[in-house]
Amino acid sequence: MQVQSSAKMPATSGSFAASSSSQHDMQLYLVGMMSGKTVTRAHLVERIFRKVGFSRTESAELVETVIDEVCNAIERGEIVKLSSFATFQVRHKNERIGRNPKTGEEVPISPRRVVTFKASNVLKQRVLKAHLSRKGQKEGGVPNSATSRSFQFVTVKVAVRVARRD
User: Fold this and answer.
1) Of 23, 117, 135, 144, whose CB count within 10 A is highest?
2) pLDDT tens-place string over residues 23-80
3) pTM of the model as a whole
4) CA 109 – CA 39 distance, rounded (Å)
5) Domain with CATH 4.10.520 in the chain
6) Into which CATH architecture does domain 78-166 fall?
């Protein structure tokens, strides 16, 4: 399957020579690149390039194709379920009355569609395990009450306005 993509991927910062004999240099480069708090398209492209062996162009096309397919399905109102990761779903919200917090004035909020993101149990467990390992606790250990409260409900719902198709 041929995919045409006109999207330009931002260049990744830093450089390393492909001819370098040190695999350690490459690992340090990738760790440095991925150590930020935000994973970007460029990071995903670089990971696919390194791990799978596709060219950077093929990797960029793959990332764009996956993101486009997920976005298109969500726009159509379909449920997108990525096993062991999450479920994206469009929900319809009715008109309601809101209140301006500064003035207390009642304001009508128009009906809209929002995208919800529900993390899978596998992802929730991975987040919890990573959190506990950073806190120095074992997975089977008894977490303190603050930890158990903060991870009791890990489901995140993201409200994003979806353009209405008329």
Assistant:
1) 117
2) 444 444 444 454 558 999 999 999 999 999 999 999 999 999 999 999 999 999 999 9
3) 0.57
4) 33
5) 78-166
6) Irregular (4.10)
User: What's the order of all strands across the beta sheet hosting 80-82?
Assistant: 80-82, 86-93, 112-119
- Cα–Cα distance, 159 to 89 (Å, whole number): 11
Q: Which residues contact 133 (CB under 8 A, 6 or more apart)?
A: none
Contacts of 86 (CB under 8 A, 6+ apart): 117, 118, 119, 120, 123
DSSP run (H or E) holding 143: none
- The residues with which 116 forms a beta bridge, in sequence order, are 89
- Rg value, the chain, Cα: 21
DSSP 8-state class, residue 9: P
- The sign one gets for the Cα dihedral 139, 31, 69, 159 is positive
63-76 burial by CB neighbour count: b if 16+ within 10 A, else e?
bbeeeeeeeeebee
∠ Cα 104 107 113 (to 5°): 130
